[in-house]
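A student in our group prepared the protein record below, which I am reviewing. What it holds is a sequence and that sequence's fold in token form. My question to you is simply how this chain folds and whether the tokens agree. Do not assume that whoever made the record got everything right. I have pasted the whole thing underneath without changing anything:
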Amino acid sequence: MLSALGFRHIEAIRAVLKTGSVTAAAGQLNVTQPAVSNSLRDAENRLGFKLFERRAGCLLPNAAASQLFDEIERSFTGLEEINQAAERVAQGQGRRLVVTATPAFGASTLPGVLRAYRDAAPATLLSVESRNANLVASMVATQKADIGFGPEVPPIRGLASELVARLPMVCYLAATHPLARGRGPLKAAQLLDEPMISPGRVERMDLLIARVFRNCARLPATVVECPVIITACAMVAAGIGFTITNPLPAWLFPRAQVVTRALEPQVYLSYHAYWVESRLPVADRERLVGLARQQMAALAQDAVALR
């Protein structure tokens, strides 16, 4: 890089990438088209490489522009949050609390947690983001979210965590499946010849499933790989195969469609809360973690027996 970019360069690059043309970018920024063109040209001169390919009067972003866009968006997201916060202050509104969670937690546990939290803090604007466990932790660590909930992930420097629940892995079967009518724990060997809907390696679920079948010579054949566990359970309901995960998604499906059974050997999945000490007040963190713990305990209690 020959020289550093200024804010007007970054603003112009972002506007063109988001709108797709210099004309639209100029309208968004409330400047002239030549001003945007000059900013782009100056940015490329400073960088020492091209960001756009000019074809038939159009600007097409190249790989370098696409690579820069993620970082630019992260910077502007923080700026937009500041402006939104200022607008809420101007209007006499409460602060904004960003909560991120995995889809299964978000659909089964989080609604009850946030309902109870709002009872005590009705002026707080709640913003919810759904991500896989690794991105949940990353969002909190980079302070894009105030608190996160998801399965345990490897430690991240500066990120605090606390165990919320330790849930048994269970088997999800279509209600019409012969194994769904059994009683007691389902032995891993009974599933070896059944088609499996696998979550893949996301959130290290593959390691937990391998532990379920540790006493078997092989794993069941995977027919679908689906990292979104709610979608995997929907595929179970459709009769595609079985899947293995924690009991939380079971509450989203009627027993006439999906049945869960305990597994033998039993394997557990740990759910954690994640936060950065300097960002989230202790009182808020303790309340949210406490509510999550209560809600998960209530949902998970006798989940297999109830289904």
Remarks:
- The radius of gyration is 24 Å.
- The mean pLDDT is 87.
